[in-house]
Amino acid sequence: AADKINLIPQDFFAELCEQIIQHLNHKIPGVNIAELCQRIQMSGIEINVGDLAKIANTISFLFSTAARNNLSTEELVATLGNAVSALPKHAVQVIRHVWNEQGKSISVSEDARNMATMGQFVDIKWKLGVAMSSDTCRSLKYPYVTVTLKVADPSGQITDKSFEMTIPQFK
Fold first, then answer.
1. Do 89 and 112 fall into the same domain?
2. By 3-state DSSP, what share of the chain in percent is helix, strand and coil, each rounded to 5?
3. Edge-to-edge strand order for the sheet containing 158-166?
4. Same-domain check for residues 125 and 110
5. pTM of the predicted structure, to 2 decimals
6. Residues 54 and 112 occupy one common structural domain
7. Three-state DSSP state, 9
8. Count of CB atoms within 10 A of residue 60's CB?
């Protein structure tokens, strides 16, 4: 993930780190990796969602481990310097700043750790539709419900899960 961090501009990397801290503090349900990736791509940077998700997971692990071990900003930066020599200078500066400003607020209670092992429901959207006909069937005229669930997985990545049901299935 360290080589991919080089691709991300400092402002986007800072935003990612701050969202991860907010997620770890249970202030937001997760980090919308797809939306952030799209914004980075629109700025002209070539990065895919999978690579950005790996970076987010790495930074999340870094912050949660630092919180669990109650590391100071200097201890965290020293550990980063010893462990990851390939980490770009701007990334270390952002991590130092974010950890210094917000790192101490991460709560690592036993309940929070247990809760983090499952996904979190964020939002639901549904719509009612009627299929009138198709290439293979001239007269359908059956209503259906399309449901989209927005879920934050344990790492904080937000994903959409969509499915269709007949009206009796929906009831």
1. yes
2. 50, 20, 30
3. 120-131, 142-152, 158-166
4. no
5. 0.63
6. yes
7. coil
8. 23
Domain boundary (94, 116, 138) is at 116
Where does the pLDDT of residue 114 fall: very low under 50, low under 70, confident under 90, or very high at 90 and above?
very low
Q: Are the beta carbons of 120 and 38 closer than 8 angstroms? A: no
Q: Do residues 167 and 145 touch, judged by C-beta distance below 8 A?
A: yes
Count of structural domains, the chain: 2
How is residue 51 written in tokens?
Answer: 């690579």
Question: Are residues 125 and 101 part of one domain?
Answer: no
pLDDT greater than 70 at residue 67: yes
Question: Residue 124, class by beta-carbon neighbours within 10 Å (0-12 exposed, 13-18 middle, 19+ buried)?
Answer: exposed
Q: Which domain holds residue 124?
A: 120-169
Q: How far apart are CA 33 and CA 150, in angstroms?
A: 13
pLDDT at 170 over 60: yes
Q: What confidence category does residue 16 fall into, taking pLDDT thresholds of 50, 70 and 90? A: very high
**Beta bridge pairs of residue 159:** 151
Residues 6+ apart with CB under 8 A from 12: 36, 39, 40, 43, 45
Q: Residue 133 corresponds to which tokens in the numbers above?
A: 């006909």
Output phi, psi for 41, to 5 deg. -65, -40
Structure tokens at 124: 């639901």
Mean pLDDT comparison of 16-25, 70-79, 133-142, highest-scoring range? 16-25
**21 plus 99 within the same structural domain:** yes
